[in-house]
Amino acid sequence: MRIFYHLLLTLLLLVQPLWADKKEEKNGEVDNGLKDAAGLIYGVSDLVKRRYVEEVEAKELLTGALKGMLSGLDPHSNYLPPERFKMSKDEYSGSYVGLGIEITMENGAVKVISPMDGSPAAKAGLKPGDLIIMTDGKPFASDDIYDAVDRLRGKAGSKIRLTIRRKFKAPFDITVTRKRIKVHPVKWKLEGDIGYLRIRDFAARTTKDELLSAIKKIKSEAKDNLKGYVLDLRNNGGGLLDQGIDVCDVFLKKGVVLEVKGRTEDMGEIHKVDDGIDAIKGKPLVVLINSGSASASEIVAGALRDNGRAVIVGEKSFGKGSIQVVVPLPNGGAVKMTVALFYTPKGVKIQQNGIVPDVEIKQIENLNIHKEKYTLREADLDKSIGNAKKGKAEDDDDDDDEAVDGEGKKIEDYQLLRALDVCRAISVYAAHQGEPTKKS
User: Fold this and answer.
1) Which of these is catalytic: 114, 293, 295, 297?
2) pLDDT digit string (tens) for 353-388?
3) For residues 183 and 94, is the Cβ–Cβ distance under 8 A?
4) Euclidean distance between the first and the last CA atom of the chain, given in angstroms as a whole number
5) Of 271, 310, 316, 410, which residue is most buried, by most CB within 10 angstroms?
6) Any residues with CB less than 8 A from the CB of 62 and at least 6 apart, and which?
7) What CATH homologous superfamily does 186-381+402-432 map to?
8) For the chain, what are the domain ranges?
9) Which percentage of the chain shows pLDDT scores above 70?
Protein backbone atom coordinates (compact mmCIF):
# COMPACT_ATOMS: atom_id res chain seq x y z
CA MET A 1 0.00 0.00 0.00
CA ARG A 2 1.12 3.52 -0.61
CA ILE A 3 1.81 5.58 2.50
CA PHE A 4 0.27 8.98 1.82
CA TYR A 5 1.57 10.20 5.15
CA HIS A 6 5.15 10.45 3.92
CA LEU A 7 5.02 10.07 0.14
CA LEU A 8 3.61 13.49 -0.67
CA LEU A 9 6.73 15.54 -1.11
CA THR A 10 9.91 14.20 0.43
CA LEU A 11 13.58 15.00 0.11
CA LEU A 12 15.99 12.24 1.13
CA LEU A 13 19.16 13.61 2.68
CA LEU A 14 22.00 11.09 2.52
CA VAL A 15 24.97 13.34 3.22
CA GLN A 16 25.84 15.79 5.99
CA PRO A 17 23.16 14.42 8.35
CA LEU A 18 21.19 17.24 9.96
CA TRP A 19 21.05 15.43 13.29
CA ALA A 20 24.73 16.36 13.70
CA ASP A 21 24.20 20.05 12.92
CA LYS A 22 24.90 22.44 15.77
CA LYS A 23 23.58 25.95 15.70
CA GLU A 24 26.12 28.38 17.03
CA GLU A 25 24.91 29.89 20.29
CA LYS A 26 25.71 33.46 21.23
CA ASN A 27 28.76 33.68 23.51
CA GLY A 28 29.04 29.88 23.41
CA GLU A 29 26.01 29.42 25.67
CA VAL A 30 24.08 26.16 25.61
CA ASP A 31 20.31 26.21 25.00
CA ASN A 32 19.12 25.72 28.56
CA GLY A 33 15.64 24.75 27.39
CA LEU A 34 17.00 21.80 25.43
CA LYS A 35 19.31 20.86 28.27
CA ASP A 36 16.42 20.78 30.73
CA ALA A 37 14.24 18.79 28.31
CA ALA A 38 17.00 16.22 27.76
CA GLY A 39 17.43 15.85 31.51
CA LEU A 40 13.71 15.37 32.00
CA ILE A 41 13.51 12.73 29.25
CA TYR A 42 16.46 10.86 30.77
CA GLY A 43 14.93 11.05 34.24
CA VAL A 44 11.57 9.67 33.13
CA SER A 45 13.25 6.93 31.08
CA ASP A 46 15.30 5.90 34.09
CA LEU A 47 12.18 5.86 36.28
CA VAL A 48 10.35 3.63 33.81
CA LYS A 49 13.35 1.29 33.52
CA ARG A 50 13.52 0.89 37.31
CA ARG A 51 9.89 0.95 38.44
CA TYR A 52 7.55 0.03 35.56
CA VAL A 53 5.54 -3.14 36.23
CA GLU A 54 7.23 -4.95 33.31
CA GLU A 55 10.78 -4.77 32.03
CA VAL A 56 11.19 -2.30 29.18
CA GLU A 57 14.08 -2.21 26.74
CA ALA A 58 15.94 1.09 26.34
CA LYS A 59 15.31 0.81 22.56
CA GLU A 60 11.54 0.85 23.14
CA LEU A 61 11.80 3.93 25.34
CA LEU A 62 13.92 5.74 22.75
CA THR A 63 11.49 4.88 19.95
CA GLY A 64 8.52 6.08 21.99
CA ALA A 65 10.21 9.33 22.96
CA LEU A 66 11.25 10.15 19.40
CA LYS A 67 7.82 9.28 18.00
CA GLY A 68 6.11 11.52 20.51
CA MET A 69 8.53 14.38 19.94
CA LEU A 70 8.03 14.43 16.17
CA SER A 71 4.44 13.26 15.64
CA GLY A 72 3.22 16.06 17.90
CA LEU A 73 4.55 18.70 15.49
CA ASP A 74 2.32 18.17 12.44
CA PRO A 75 0.71 15.27 10.51
CA HIS A 76 3.76 14.74 8.29
CA SER A 77 6.61 14.62 10.82
CA ASN A 78 7.60 11.33 12.43
CA TYR A 79 10.38 9.06 13.62
CA LEU A 80 11.07 6.05 11.41
CA PRO A 81 12.66 3.08 13.22
CA PRO A 82 15.18 1.15 11.08
CA GLU A 83 12.72 -1.42 9.73
CA ARG A 84 10.20 1.24 8.82
CA PHE A 85 12.78 3.48 7.22
CA LYS A 86 13.66 0.55 4.97
CA MET A 87 9.94 0.10 4.22
CA SER A 88 9.66 3.74 3.19
CA LYS A 89 12.61 3.45 0.80
CA ASP A 90 11.12 0.32 -0.74
CA GLU A 91 8.07 2.40 -1.71
CA TYR A 92 10.19 4.11 -4.38
CA SER A 93 11.40 0.90 -5.98
CA GLY A 94 8.45 0.78 -8.40
CA SER A 95 6.97 -2.45 -7.03
CA TYR A 96 5.47 -3.44 -3.68
CA VAL A 97 2.86 -5.70 -2.10
CA GLY A 98 -0.20 -4.00 -0.68
CA LEU A 99 -3.72 -2.73 -1.13
CA GLY A 100 -2.96 0.29 -3.30
CA ILE A 101 -4.40 3.03 -1.12
CA GLU A 102 -3.04 6.32 0.12
CA ILE A 103 -3.87 6.95 3.77
CA THR A 104 -3.44 9.51 6.48
CA MET A 105 -4.01 9.57 10.23
CA GLU A 106 -6.49 11.76 12.07
CA ASN A 107 -7.12 11.53 15.81
CA GLY A 108 -6.00 7.92 15.84
CA ALA A 109 -8.21 6.96 12.90
CA VAL A 110 -7.07 5.78 9.47
CA LYS A 111 -8.59 7.75 6.59
CA VAL A 112 -8.33 6.95 2.91
CA ILE A 113 -7.10 9.82 0.76
CA SER A 114 -7.49 7.90 -2.48
CA PRO A 115 -7.24 4.41 -3.94
CA MET A 116 -4.74 4.00 -6.77
CA ASP A 117 -6.10 3.36 -10.25
CA GLY A 118 -6.74 -0.34 -10.85
CA SER A 119 -5.54 -1.31 -7.36
CA PRO A 120 -7.17 -4.00 -5.18
CA ALA A 121 -8.53 -1.21 -2.98
CA ALA A 122 -10.12 0.59 -5.95
CA LYS A 123 -11.64 -2.63 -7.29
CA ALA A 124 -13.04 -3.43 -3.84
CA GLY A 125 -14.83 -0.06 -3.77
CA LEU A 126 -12.80 2.03 -1.31
CA LYS A 127 -13.31 5.79 -1.76
CA PRO A 128 -11.57 9.01 -0.69
CA GLY A 129 -12.60 9.96 2.84
CA ASP A 130 -13.47 6.41 3.93
CA LEU A 131 -12.60 5.65 7.55
CA ILE A 132 -11.14 2.18 8.23
CA ILE A 133 -12.41 1.30 11.71
CA MET A 134 -11.67 -2.44 11.89
CA THR A 135 -9.44 -5.02 10.22
CA ASP A 136 -10.45 -8.68 10.31
CA GLY A 137 -12.96 -7.92 13.02
CA LYS A 138 -10.49 -6.18 15.35
CA PRO A 139 -10.62 -2.45 16.21
CA PHE A 140 -8.26 -0.45 14.02
CA ALA A 141 -6.88 2.66 15.69
CA SER A 142 -3.36 4.01 16.07
CA ASP A 143 -1.44 7.20 16.62
CA ASP A 144 1.34 5.90 14.36
CA ILE A 145 0.89 5.64 10.60
CA TYR A 146 3.46 2.86 10.41
CA ASP A 147 1.63 0.75 12.99
CA ALA A 148 -1.40 1.09 10.75
CA VAL A 149 0.63 0.09 7.71
CA ASP A 150 1.89 -3.03 9.51
CA ARG A 151 -1.71 -4.13 10.04
CA LEU A 152 -2.67 -3.55 6.41
CA ARG A 153 0.37 -5.19 4.86
CA GLY A 154 0.82 -8.91 4.26
CA LYS A 155 1.77 -11.56 1.73
CA ALA A 156 0.61 -11.34 -1.87
CA GLY A 157 -2.64 -13.26 -2.28
CA SER A 158 -3.68 -12.92 1.36
CA LYS A 159 -7.01 -11.31 2.17
CA ILE A 160 -7.94 -8.64 4.69
CA ARG A 161 -11.45 -7.67 5.77
CA LEU A 162 -11.85 -3.94 6.28
CA THR A 163 -14.78 -2.44 8.17
CA ILE A 164 -15.53 0.93 6.59
CA ARG A 165 -17.37 3.95 7.93
CA ARG A 166 -18.57 6.24 5.16
CA LYS A 167 -20.59 9.45 5.41
CA PHE A 168 -24.32 8.78 5.83
CA LYS A 169 -23.88 5.00 5.65
CA ALA A 170 -23.88 2.31 8.31
CA PRO A 171 -20.48 0.60 8.74
CA PHE A 172 -19.92 -2.15 6.18
CA ASP A 173 -17.23 -4.71 5.33
CA ILE A 174 -14.99 -4.88 2.26
CA THR A 175 -12.62 -7.78 1.62
CA VAL A 176 -9.44 -6.85 -0.24
CA THR A 177 -6.84 -9.25 -1.62
CA ARG A 178 -3.28 -8.02 -1.30
CA LYS A 179 -1.17 -8.17 -4.44
CA ARG A 180 2.13 -7.00 -5.83
CA ILE A 181 1.52 -3.63 -7.38
CA LYS A 182 3.79 -2.50 -10.16
CA VAL A 183 3.90 1.24 -10.35
CA HIS A 184 3.47 2.62 -13.85
CA PRO A 185 2.75 6.27 -13.09
CA VAL A 186 1.42 7.30 -16.53
CA LYS A 187 -1.43 6.01 -18.63
CA TRP A 188 -2.89 7.55 -21.79
CA LYS A 189 -5.64 7.31 -24.39
CA LEU A 190 -7.03 9.33 -27.27
CA GLU A 191 -10.42 10.88 -26.53
CA GLY A 192 -11.50 11.79 -30.06
CA ASP A 193 -9.36 14.80 -30.90
CA ILE A 194 -8.00 15.29 -27.35
CA GLY A 195 -5.01 13.48 -25.87
CA TYR A 196 -5.69 12.20 -22.34
CA LEU A 197 -2.72 11.86 -19.96
CA ARG A 198 -3.16 10.44 -16.47
CA ILE A 199 -0.36 10.67 -13.88
CA ARG A 200 -1.17 8.43 -10.91
CA ASP A 201 1.63 9.68 -8.65
CA PHE A 202 5.12 11.15 -8.69
CA ALA A 203 6.79 8.39 -6.65
CA ALA A 204 8.43 6.54 -9.55
CA ARG A 205 11.57 8.01 -11.09
CA THR A 206 10.30 7.03 -14.54
CA THR A 207 7.43 9.55 -14.56
CA LYS A 208 8.95 11.97 -17.07
CA ASP A 209 10.08 9.25 -19.48
CA GLU A 210 6.68 7.54 -19.39
CA LEU A 211 4.94 10.88 -19.94
CA LEU A 212 7.05 11.68 -23.00
CA SER A 213 6.43 8.20 -24.38
CA ALA A 214 2.67 8.62 -23.90
CA ILE A 215 2.66 11.97 -25.71
CA LYS A 216 4.57 10.43 -28.61
CA LYS A 217 2.03 7.60 -28.88
CA ILE A 218 -0.91 10.02 -28.77
CA LYS A 219 0.60 12.09 -31.59
CA SER A 220 1.16 8.98 -33.67
CA GLU A 221 -2.38 7.70 -33.18
CA ALA A 222 -4.07 11.07 -33.67
CA LYS A 223 -2.03 11.99 -36.74
CA ASP A 224 -3.04 15.58 -37.59
CA ASN A 225 -6.37 15.51 -35.76
CA LEU A 226 -5.21 16.65 -32.30
CA LYS A 227 -6.63 19.79 -30.70
CA GLY A 228 -5.11 19.61 -27.22
CA TYR A 229 -4.43 17.60 -24.08
CA VAL A 230 -6.02 16.92 -20.70
CA LEU A 231 -3.57 16.16 -17.88
CA ASP A 232 -5.44 14.25 -15.17
CA LEU A 233 -3.95 14.68 -11.68
CA ARG A 234 -7.05 13.67 -9.72
CA ASN A 235 -6.36 11.54 -6.63
CA ASN A 236 -2.63 11.95 -7.24
CA GLY A 237 -1.17 12.23 -3.74
CA GLY A 238 2.23 13.49 -4.88
CA GLY A 239 5.64 11.89 -4.50
CA LEU A 240 9.13 13.09 -5.35
CA LEU A 241 9.80 16.79 -5.79
CA ASP A 242 12.19 16.31 -8.71
CA GLN A 243 9.57 14.30 -10.62
CA GLY A 244 7.06 17.12 -10.28
CA ILE A 245 9.62 19.59 -11.63
CA ASP A 246 10.45 17.22 -14.49
CA VAL A 247 6.78 17.04 -15.48
CA CYS A 248 6.69 20.85 -15.65
CA ASP A 249 9.74 20.62 -17.90
CA VAL A 250 7.68 18.51 -20.34
CA PHE A 251 5.10 21.27 -20.81
CA LEU A 252 7.11 24.48 -20.31
CA LYS A 253 9.92 26.09 -22.28
CA LYS A 254 10.98 28.19 -19.32
CA GLY A 255 9.63 29.69 -16.14
CA VAL A 256 9.52 29.41 -12.35
CA VAL A 257 7.98 26.16 -11.07
CA LEU A 258 7.82 26.88 -7.33
CA GLU A 259 9.43 28.76 -4.49
CA VAL A 260 10.41 27.02 -1.26
CA LYS A 261 10.50 28.99 1.99
CA GLY A 262 11.70 27.65 5.34
CA ARG A 263 13.00 29.00 8.65
CA THR A 264 16.62 28.56 7.61
CA GLU A 265 18.37 30.10 4.63
CA ASP A 266 19.43 26.74 3.21
CA MET A 267 15.75 25.77 2.79
CA GLY A 268 14.94 28.85 0.69
CA GLU A 269 15.06 28.06 -3.01
CA ILE A 270 13.43 28.90 -6.33
CA HIS A 271 13.02 26.02 -8.78
CA LYS A 272 12.95 26.96 -12.47
CA VAL A 273 12.69 25.44 -15.91
CA ASP A 274 15.31 27.14 -18.08
CA ASP A 275 15.41 24.97 -21.18
CA GLY A 276 12.17 23.01 -21.21
CA ILE A 277 10.88 20.57 -23.80
CA ASP A 278 7.29 21.75 -24.38
CA ALA A 279 6.57 18.32 -25.85
CA ILE A 280 3.02 19.25 -26.88
CA LYS A 281 4.26 22.26 -28.88
CA GLY A 282 2.00 24.91 -27.43
CA LYS A 283 -1.28 23.05 -27.91
CA PRO A 284 -4.10 23.77 -25.41
CA LEU A 285 -3.64 22.06 -22.06
CA VAL A 286 -6.25 21.45 -19.35
CA VAL A 287 -5.19 20.14 -15.94
CA LEU A 288 -7.83 18.17 -14.05
CA ILE A 289 -7.64 18.17 -10.22
CA ASN A 290 -9.78 17.25 -7.21
CA SER A 291 -9.55 17.04 -3.41
CA GLY A 292 -7.19 14.05 -3.71
CA SER A 293 -4.64 16.05 -5.75
CA ALA A 294 -1.87 16.87 -3.30
CA SER A 295 1.67 18.17 -2.95
CA ALA A 296 3.61 17.53 -6.18
CA SER A 297 0.28 17.51 -8.08
CA GLU A 298 -0.47 20.95 -6.70
CA ILE A 299 3.02 22.15 -7.65
CA VAL A 300 2.49 21.03 -11.26
CA ALA A 301 -1.02 22.52 -11.51
CA GLY A 302 0.05 25.83 -9.96
CA ALA A 303 3.20 26.12 -12.08
CA LEU A 304 1.44 25.41 -15.37
CA ARG A 305 -1.32 27.90 -14.63
CA ASP A 306 0.90 30.68 -13.30
CA ASN A 307 3.09 30.38 -16.39
CA GLY A 308 0.02 30.79 -18.61
CA ARG A 309 0.37 27.27 -19.93
CA ALA A 310 -2.78 25.54 -18.66
CA VAL A 311 -6.35 26.01 -17.49
CA ILE A 312 -7.26 24.20 -14.26
CA VAL A 313 -10.56 22.32 -14.17
CA GLY A 314 -12.25 20.30 -11.42
CA GLU A 315 -12.37 20.80 -7.65
CA LYS A 316 -10.11 22.52 -5.14
CA SER A 317 -7.03 20.42 -4.37
CA PHE A 318 -5.99 18.90 -1.04
CA GLY A 319 -3.79 21.77 0.17
CA LYS A 320 -0.62 19.97 1.24
CA GLY A 321 2.04 22.60 0.67
CA SER A 322 4.82 21.47 2.97
CA ILE A 323 8.14 19.76 2.33
CA GLN A 324 9.65 17.05 4.49
CA VAL A 325 13.25 15.96 4.79
CA VAL A 326 14.08 12.37 5.70
CA VAL A 327 17.31 12.39 7.68
CA PRO A 328 19.08 9.04 8.25
CA LEU A 329 20.22 8.43 11.84
CA PRO A 330 23.22 6.42 13.14
CA ASN A 331 20.92 3.62 14.38
CA GLY A 332 19.58 2.90 10.87
CA GLY A 333 16.36 4.79 11.45
CA ALA A 334 15.46 8.26 10.26
CA VAL A 335 13.75 11.48 11.22
CA LYS A 336 11.10 12.74 8.83
CA MET A 337 10.42 16.39 9.51
CA THR A 338 8.60 19.28 7.89
CA VAL A 339 11.14 21.97 7.06
CA ALA A 340 9.54 24.31 4.53
CA LEU A 341 6.42 25.41 2.70
CA PHE A 342 6.13 25.88 -1.04
CA TYR A 343 4.47 28.57 -3.12
CA THR A 344 3.36 28.81 -6.74
CA PRO A 345 5.33 31.07 -9.14
CA LYS A 346 2.92 33.93 -8.38
CA GLY A 347 3.44 33.54 -4.64
CA VAL A 348 0.27 31.64 -3.79
CA LYS A 349 0.66 29.62 -0.59
CA ILE A 350 -0.52 26.04 -1.15
CA GLN A 351 -0.57 24.91 2.50
CA GLN A 352 -4.23 24.60 3.58
CA ASN A 353 -5.38 26.79 0.66
CA GLY A 354 -4.89 24.30 -2.15
CA ILE A 355 -5.27 25.10 -5.84
CA VAL A 356 -8.62 26.63 -6.78
CA PRO A 357 -9.64 25.62 -10.33
CA ASP A 358 -10.32 28.18 -13.05
CA VAL A 359 -13.40 26.18 -14.03
CA GLU A 360 -15.04 24.43 -11.09
CA ILE A 361 -16.66 21.13 -12.05
CA LYS A 362 -18.11 18.91 -9.32
CA GLN A 363 -17.55 15.23 -9.86
CA ILE A 364 -20.37 12.75 -10.12
CA GLU A 365 -19.33 9.40 -8.66
CA ASN A 366 -21.49 6.34 -9.21
CA LEU A 367 -24.10 8.70 -10.64
CA ASN A 368 -24.44 10.54 -7.31
CA ILE A 369 -23.43 14.17 -6.84
CA HIS A 370 -20.14 14.24 -4.95
CA LYS A 371 -20.61 16.91 -2.27
CA GLU A 372 -17.63 19.22 -1.75
CA LYS A 373 -18.13 19.49 2.01
CA TYR A 374 -17.55 15.78 2.60
CA THR A 375 -14.07 15.62 1.07
CA LEU A 376 -10.87 15.36 3.11
CA ARG A 377 -8.11 17.92 2.74
CA GLU A 378 -4.91 18.97 4.50
CA ALA A 379 -6.80 21.60 6.50
CA ASP A 380 -8.93 18.84 8.06
CA LEU A 381 -5.93 17.01 9.55
CA ASP A 382 -5.22 17.32 13.25
CA LYS A 383 -2.23 19.60 14.00
CA SER A 384 -1.98 20.68 10.36
CA ILE A 385 0.31 23.69 9.94
CA GLY A 386 -1.77 26.87 9.85
CA ASN A 387 -4.88 25.01 10.95
CA ALA A 388 -7.99 27.16 11.18
CA LYS A 389 -11.11 26.54 13.25
CA LYS A 390 -13.31 23.90 11.72
CA GLY A 391 -17.07 23.64 11.87
CA LYS A 392 -19.43 20.80 11.17
CA ALA A 393 -20.81 20.58 7.66
CA GLU A 394 -24.55 20.49 7.37
CA ASP A 395 -26.26 18.46 4.71
CA ASP A 396 -29.00 20.42 3.03
CA ASP A 397 -29.68 18.00 0.20
CA ASP A 398 -29.70 14.24 0.54
CA ASP A 399 -31.24 13.63 -2.87
CA ASP A 400 -29.29 11.58 -5.38
CA ASP A 401 -28.98 13.02 -8.87
CA GLU A 402 -28.14 11.27 -12.09
CA ALA A 403 -25.94 12.73 -14.80
CA VAL A 404 -26.83 12.08 -18.42
CA ASP A 405 -25.51 13.36 -21.71
CA GLY A 406 -27.53 14.83 -24.55
CA GLU A 407 -28.63 11.37 -25.70
CA GLY A 408 -29.79 10.28 -22.28
CA LYS A 409 -26.80 8.00 -21.64
CA LYS A 410 -25.39 7.83 -18.12
CA ILE A 411 -22.05 9.59 -17.70
CA GLU A 412 -19.32 7.66 -15.88
CA ASP A 413 -16.77 10.50 -15.54
CA TYR A 414 -18.49 13.85 -15.64
CA GLN A 415 -15.39 15.89 -14.77
CA LEU A 416 -13.38 14.40 -17.61
CA LEU A 417 -16.20 14.99 -20.07
CA ARG A 418 -16.33 18.67 -19.14
CA ALA A 419 -12.51 18.98 -19.19
CA LEU A 420 -12.48 17.68 -22.76
CA ASP A 421 -15.10 20.29 -23.66
CA VAL A 422 -13.00 23.07 -22.11
CA CYS A 423 -9.93 21.92 -24.03
CA ARG A 424 -11.85 21.92 -27.33
CA ALA A 425 -13.24 25.39 -26.56
CA ILE A 426 -9.72 26.74 -25.94
CA SER A 427 -8.60 25.21 -29.23
CA VAL A 428 -11.45 26.88 -31.14
CA TYR A 429 -10.75 30.23 -29.46
CA ALA A 430 -7.02 30.01 -30.23
CA ALA A 431 -7.73 29.13 -33.87
CA HIS A 432 -9.84 32.26 -34.35
CA GLN A 433 -7.43 34.69 -32.71
CA GLY A 434 -6.15 37.20 -35.25
CA GLU A 435 -8.78 36.44 -37.89
CA PRO A 436 -10.39 39.52 -39.48
CA THR A 437 -13.90 40.35 -38.33
CA LYS A 438 -16.48 39.36 -40.92
CA LYS A 439 -19.35 41.72 -41.69
CA SER A 440 -22.76 40.43 -42.61
Assistant:
1) 295
2) 999 999 999 987 544 433 444 456 777 776 777 765
3) yes
4) 63
5) 310
6) 45
7) 2-enoyl-CoA Hydratase; Chain A, domain 1 (3.90.226.10)
8) 96-182, 186-381+402-432
9) 80
